[in-house]
Amino acid sequence: MPVHRAPTPVKIIIAGGFGVGKTTTVAAISEIVPLTTEAEMTAAGLGVDDPGDAQDKSTTTVAMDFGRVTIDEHLKLYLFGTPGQARFGFMWDDLARGALGAVVVVDSRRLDDCFPAVDYFEHTATPFVVAVNAFDGLIAHELDQVRWALAVKPDVPVVRFDARERLSVRDTLLILLERSLGRFGGASAGHHVAPVG
Fold it and tell me: Considering the entire predicted model, what is its pTM?
């Protein structure tokens, strides 16, 4: 009689600057209602939290977002979205502890906002993917220009995606998983990541 094994839980971090689409990314793919810690933005955040072109943004993540997605019968992802503001940077070590990898969400109109996330994952040697969010279907710079501006290593995938689209988020997560599992030996051990339905 075959032994049923529970899926392996895998922690993935969704990081990036303020207002780049991290909460939207988690919500687009999560198979459960995502846990969010959104709070109304107040006058106290004026001049501190810059939403860039998203002037209609009225809430902000103050702790984390959490979602879950089952990849296959062997693998279940737990997604942890970080707050984007620098003043919440002290939480990153706790959120990132034990993570297999990270998706750094980038608004190509505001590349400077994602430097802290890129630097953090490079410094901690955490595998990551740079995911350039296509706001209104457009990106401000081509992917090779984004790679050059962020000075990310050639082996770091830089992809275009839409944080609102489930399939786009799925494809980005699969790229991260293939990179991470290959790095840690999972792919060489025969584990192939199947697409999520």
Answer: 0.79
